[in-house]
Amino acid sequence: MSEPKRPSGKPATINDIARLAEVSKKTVSRVINNSPFVKEDTRRRVEAVIAEHGYSPDPQARGLAFRRSFLVGMIYDNPSPNYVVNMQQGVLDAVRGAGLELVVHPCNRASDRFLDEVRSFIVRQKLFGVILPPSVSEDDRVVQILKAADCPYVRIASVSLDVPECMVVTHDSRGAARAARHLAELGHRRIAFISGPDSFRSSHERGRGFQDGLAEHGLKLDPAYVRKGAYTFESGVEAAAELLALPEPPTAIFAGNDEMAIGVMKAARDAGMDVPGDLSIVGFDDLPMASRVWPNLTTVRLPIRDMGRMAAEKLTAGLHGLDAATMIQPEVDPSLVVRDSTTGPRP
Amino acid sequence: MSEPKRPSGKPATINDIARLAEVSKKTVSRVINNSPFVKEDTRRRVEAVIAEHGYSPDPQARGLAFRRSFLVGMIYDNPSPNYVVNMQQGVLDAVRGAGLELVVHPCNRASDRFLDEVRSFIVRQKLFGVILPPSVSEDDRVVQILKAADCPYVRIASVSLDVPECMVVTHDSRGAARAARHLAELGHRRIAFISGPDSFRSSHERGRGFQDGLAEHGLKLDPAYVRKGAYTFESGVEAAAELLALPEPPTAIFAGNDEMAIGVMKAARDAGMDVPGDLSIVGFDDLPMASRVWPNLTTVRLPIRDMGRMAAEKLTAGLHGLDAATMIQPEVDPSLVVRDSTTGPRP
DNA sequence: GGGGGGACTGACACCGCTGGCCATTCGGGC
DNA sequence: GCCCGAATGGCCAGCGGTGTCAGTCCCCCC
C-alpha cells in the first residue's frame, strides 16, 4: 500500500506531493503540520497522495527549519540491562507513530567530563526531549543544562523532584511497604533490611516504605537488623552473612534490589540455611533472574516499560495538543510478586 | 576550555566562526571536513577559533547538505536485554568521538508490517549506517532494503553471510567446540545437546561446532541425546526432563544458550539430581545470571561489546580514511568460562 | 618578463522544509 | 452588490551547512 511510487528510487519530496495533489507545497506543509486553515476536502486529497506515495517529510530539513530535532534522548547511568532495555521499549512505544526516534546515551556519572559530554549531546542534537531515568534523573546539574538549552525533559524517580509535567514518580516506597506487609502478615518479627547505597533516592524510598509497611503492623525496624549494601550481588552476600551470623538472626530479609536478594540467597546457602524454611527473602525489581533462581524470588515489580511510555507521552503531549501538566496521569504502582522465597517463620 | 563564548545563549554557527577567523564560511567548512586544500596556517587559525568557542557543526544542517544523517541505526529483534545493552554500548564505544549518535530500533520480525517499518525507518532517517545483530542480520530482505537505500550496514552473525566489510563473524561454532572439548576431556561419554530453534543460524553453528569438538576426541553425538529447544527457559526444562528420563541418561548436557541451560538445572533439581555430580551442564552466552545461579554455570562467552564496537568501526572506517575491507580485523573468539556446573562423570 | 599550473579561497546556489506577508479566490450573510 | 472571513497560493527569506566553479595568488620555468 505504501510503496513509494517514484521509480527514481529517491524518496518523494514535498514538491512531488504538492504537484500530484495539485496544491501548493505550502498547503502540503499546512496539512503535515495540522494547520486548522485547511479545508477538509483539500486535507483529505493531500493526505491521500501522501499515503499513496509513502511520503514522510525529511526530519533533517524539518528539524533545521524548526530549530529542533525529532530525536528523543535517553540519558542514563544504569547498569541493569533489564531496566535499560525495558525503559527504551516503553519510550519507543510512545514515540513511534509520533515520528520521533530514540537516541540512547548511556553515560558515566562519575567521569569528570560527564557534564560536558551531556551538555554537548543535548545542545548539538537540539533534542526534542530527554528522558532521565534514575539515577541521572536525580542530578540537578543535568536538569540545569536541559533548562538552559530550553530542552523539554521528563525525570523518572522514586519520589517527586520537579513539577508534575516533568516527573514520573515510581513510588518505590509503596512497593517496599507491600513487601513489609507481606512479611509481617506471614508472621515474621525479626525482619532485616539491606539498603542500597545512599547515593540513590530509591534506596531511601525503599527503606522508608519498608518501615512504613512494618509500622502498619505495629513493627519497628531494629537498627541491629539493618545493613547498607551497594545494590550489588557481592554486597548482598556480605550484608546477609553478617546478619545471619547474629546471635538471633532474622527470619526474613528484605533486600533493596534483586541483585542483593540473590546475594542473600547465596549467603543463606553458604550458611546451610533453607530458603524459605529458615529464611524468607524479598527483593525488588523482578529481574528475569528472579524467576529463574531457586527458589524463585518473591520481589517487587516496577512496570518499567509503562514508566518509559508514560514519560515519553509527557514529552509528546504537545504534539497531540495536550498539556502534560493536566494529562490524566496513570500512577505507577509497584506490585508484589509472591513466589517461593517467602513463607512463615518456623514456630 | 570549551565554554561557548556567545552570551546570546545560542550555540555558535559557522558564520560566527568564519567572521572571527576572518575567512569565508566555506573555508571553515573545509577545515571541519578535513579538506587538504587549506593552508596549514589558515587551518590552525580556524581550529583555534573553533576550539575557543566550543563550536561544533549542526548535524541536521550538515546532514541535509550531505543527504545523509549522522545517525547509526541498530535494528534488532533480540529478546535478551543483556545482549542488546552490551551491543549498544559497544557500538557507542566506536561511534562517539566520530560525531555520530545511536538510534535504536527494536522490531518484531514476526509482524507483517516488519519490512515496511524497517524500510520507512531507513529511508526517512537517511542513516549513516546500520548495525544488524542476529537474528535480523540473517534476514536478506532487510539487507535488500539497505542496499536499495544505498545505506551502509554491518551484519553480526555466527557465520559469514556477506562480503567481509559488511560482516562481523562471531564463530559460535568455535565456542561450542570448546564446550565439547571441555566435556570430553572431563571424561564424559554420554553427552547430550539441546539445540536452539532452526530459525537461528547460531543454533546450527553451535550444534555443528559442538559435534566438531566431540569429533576431535573421537566422540559422536548420539541422535538419541539431541533435543530441539527454543532458546527459552521452559524449553530447556522440557528437553532436559526428557533426556534425564532416558534409560541411560546423559552425564552431561550442552544447552544452546544459558536460558535453556538454567532450565536444565531446574529439570535436574526436579529429578533429584546433583549438579554437577550427577549431571554436568554447559550453556552459551554468559548471561549475568550464569554467575548468580547455583551452581555457577559453565558457559561460553561472546565478547558482545567488542562485537558491537567492531561492527561500528567498519561503518566509521570511511571517516578515518580507512577501507573497511582491508582493515586489520580482530577476530571474534568465543571463550569458555569454566565454573561450577561441570565436573567429571561419576565412575 | 610572460606563461602555466597548482595551491588556496570565496561567492553563490542549493539541500527540503517552515514562516511571514500579501494577494487572490470563493462562498455566504446582509 | 458589498463586505468579510476562510482557504489557498506565491514568493522570498532563512535554518546551517556543503558543492560547484570561478577566481586570486604565488611560484617556477622557459
Estimated radius of gyration of chain A:
25 Å
Which shape of chain A, going by the Cα principal axes? elongated
Low confidence ranges of chain A: 1-7
Q: Strand-and-helix sequence of chain A, N→C? A: HHHHEHEHEHEEHEHEHEHEEHE
Keywords (chains A, B): DNA-binding, Transcription, Transcription regulation
Organism (chains A, B): Brevundimonas variabilis
GO molecular function (chains A, B): DNA-binding transcription factor activity; transcription cis-regulatory region binding
Pfam family, one (chains A, B): Peripla_BP_3
Show the helix and strand layout.
Two copies of one chain form a homodimer.
Chain A: H1 14-21, H2 25-32, H3 40-52, H4 59-66, E1 71-76, H5 81-95, E2 101-106, H6 114-125, E3 129-132, H7 140-148, E4 153-157, E5 167-169, H8 172-185, E6 191-195, H9 201-216, E7 226-228, H10 233-244, E8 252-255, H11 258-270, E9 280-284, E10 298-301, H12 304-316, E11 335-337
Parallel strand pairs in A: 1-2, 1-3, 3-4, 4-5, 6-7, 6-8, 8-9, 9-10
Antiparallel strand pairs in A: 10-11
Helix pairs in contact in A: 1-2, 1-3, 5-12, 6-7, 8-9, 10-11
The structure holds a DNA duplex (30 and 30 nucleotides).
